[in-house]
Please model this.
Amino acid sequence: MHRAERPLDWLVVGGGIHGTHLTRVLLEAGVRRSRIRVVDPEPELLAVWTEHTTRTGMRYLRSPGVHHLGLDPFDLFRFAGRRRARRRDLFKGQRRRPLLSLFQDHARHVIGESGLQELHLRARVTGMDPSGPGGFRVETDRGGLHARRVLLCVGGGGAPSDPSWVESARSQGAPITHLFGPDLPWEDLLEQARRTGLPVAVVGGGISAGQFALRVIHDGGTAALLLRHELRVESLDADPGWLGPKNLKSFHAETDPATRRHLVQSARHRGSMPPEVAGAVRACAEAGGLDLRCNTNPVGCHRTTTSCGGDRWELILRTEGDEERTVPVSSVVLATGIGHATDTYADSGFPGGLWLQRLAREREFPTAPCGFPVPDSALQWIEGLHVSGALAELEVGPVAKNIVGARMAARRIDAVARSLS
Ligand SMILES: Cc1cc2nc3c(=O)[nH]c(=O)nc-3n(C[C@H](O)[C@H](O)[C@H](O)COP(=O)(O)OP(=O)(O)OC[C@H]3O[C@@H](n4cnc5c(N)ncnc54)[C@H](O)[C@@H]3O)c2cc1C
Model:
């Protein structure tokens, strides 16, 4: 643990995409290295992002090449080398989306170049007293810390959102995992699929579901992709108007947090895939490698005995006309997202942990009916406590969670840090 005699100037909670970029920005704004730390229980910065993007098998990011962790929007293009000399597959399409491996190399470069890893304290924040000496007393599972300002970059939070039928199927031993759960037994999934010749059923209609089904097939398994709707094709998570005044002007003019939540919810293209992923999914289905089933809803999973006397698992599907069908599967992978803020966050877990939700309630921090912060324009929830990512959605807007959301938050946090120095 950091044993500072006086409080840190900044404590960044969470070393993911947001925490890493914002720490880099704070250093650039003049915050001294000895006065800032990033606290995260993972062994290294970006661990959650790296694990999740690897699991999906994605090759390219959905976002354009100007969205990355460096300071200048064109840093990633410069890092990739001169246009004529660089590999042609490093960026894709009109928006020049970067190859994941390039994005990762660049992220490591940003971390290495500014020594961010040395600022990382490996611990989980478990509580916070905003009226501690010199600002905040922050409790972690590895001791206490003091900081004048705290910046919460704790991600989207929460447990993976499981459909309601999953609990009882799991209790009977059904082989169901969540793509973004604590562990994804990839080798076992693939081995089961190969051995039984039965597909891995991938439940979900978004980009991660599509990418994961393609990964299974690419690595020699078979997959069934089950969507509640038709394939929805959208280039980005939300309309580009949300990156600037076109949409944000009226968003910021709206003073009712519940209406802002509604605007955020309806602006995000949930359950959609960009054209090239949807195209690859369709092509794979046409070629016979992928069992693509739209407008179908899994409602259960049970064990049956085959004519040869063996056991196998069957997924029960309800189709649009309310008919039930069964599909034999080797395993089920849920790509149904991670807890989303709707009217209440109670059953999907609060970003950062329930301690934060409780603290906000007890100390009456300004919150919306959905339980999320209502921060000011400096992304300050209460004096000295700033938010970014999912927790800043009601101020930054529908792209708050994305990489560009970190860059948008950075402009405001940078101004705060410069005004203090
Ligand atoms: C597969 C996938 C692909 C994506 N692709 C794109 C894309 O192409 N473009 C784009 O813009 N966005 C993309 N996103 C969305 C978004 O950019 C990511 O979800 C991003 O990781 C969010 O960054 P974050 O820092 O808020 O959260 P995370 O990266 O999840 O990091 C949060 C960190 O906070 C830590 N933490 C949580 N609670 C505590 C605590 N109590 N104490 C200490 N530390 C804590 C966690 O350990 C974690 O390291 C993608 C998301 C996924 C899952």
Summary: Residues 13-19, 39-42, 47-49, 52-53, 56, 61-63, 67, 124-125, 153-155, 208, 352-353, 389, 401-404 surround flavin-adenine dinucleotide (CB under 6 Å). The chain has 13 helices and 18 strands. The first strand starts at residue 8 and ends at 13. The radius of gyration is 23 Å.
